[in-house]
Amino acid sequence: MLFNILSIIMVLSSILVIRSENSVHSVFFLVLVFLTSALILFLLEIEFISLLFILVYVGAIAVLFLFVVMMLDIKISMFDKDFMIYLPLGLFLGFIFFFEIYLALNQNFFPSANIVNSNIYMNWILSVDIFSNIETLGQLLYTYYFFYFLIAGIILLIPMIGAIVLTLNFSFKPKVQHEFAQILRNKRNSVYITEKFK
């Protein structure tokens, strides 16, 4: 049930990545796609690749996309009227893509009856090691490789601070209201009569 909910959220958010008019919203939906795909991999007990999705894609690439979009100051783009011209080509390429995925899944996940009847499956994780992938990764990262882990965090933090500093607009000249000049205005220097040119 949870797998189906996460799959629906991932498909909807991936559609909204290309359908949203604001590019910042597209990056946020892309982060949601990465998070839901990481959760799906976590449900399939592929913890290492799930953590890599969160660390690499969400932590580095999506943040990079977000700050590049913020630095470029891309305006909200409206959809062109020529959108329907590219729709048949997109549908054709999408059909070929999903047909290839169907062929790959049909060959790999539906074996013949002879292989199904034979007992060839063995859970090597329970037989060889009692530690999960997350426990092993945590032990290695926070004991032997903690220095490199901290260096990687600092390397990701420095460009984030640089992008924030570059996107900020510092105004050193504050706007001041001159009340004395406004009070001293009269009809002669405030009302101008102009002729309408034909």
TrEMBL record:
Gene Ontology cellular component list = mitochondrial membrane
Q: What is this protein called?
A: NADH-ubiquinone oxidoreductase chain 6
Q: How does it sit in the membrane?
A: Multi-pass membrane protein
Q: Which InterPro entries match?
A: NADH_UbQ/plastoQ_OxRdtase_su6, Nuo/plastoQ_OxRdtase_6_NuoJ
Question: What gene name is given for the protein in this entry?
Answer: nad6
Where is this chain primarily localised? Answer: mitochondrion
- What is the originating organism of this protein? Vischeria sp. CAUP Q 202
Q: Which reaction does it catalyse?
A: a ubiquinone + NADH + 5 H(+)(in) = a ubiquinol + NAD(+) + 4 H(+)(out)
Where do the TM regions start and end?
24-44, 50-72, 84-105, 145-168
- Family as reported in the entry's similarity comment: Belongs to the complex I subunit 6 family.
Subcellular locations according to the entry? Mitochondrion membrane
Keyword annotations for this protein, in alphabetical order, are: Electron transport, Membrane, Mitochondrion, NAD, Oxidoreductase, Respiratory chain, Translocase, Transmembrane, Transmembrane helix, Transport, Ubiquinone
Q: Does the keyword Mitochondrion apply?
A: yes
The function of this protein is: Core subunit of the mitochondrial membrane respiratory chain NADH dehydrogenase (Complex I) which catalyzes electron transfer from NADH through the respiratory chain, using ubiquinone as an electron acceptor. Essential for the catalytic activity and assembly of complex I.
Q: Which GO terms describe its molecular function?
A: NADH dehydrogenase (ubiquinone) activity; oxidoreductase activity
**Which EC number(s) does the record attach to this protein?**
7.1.1.2
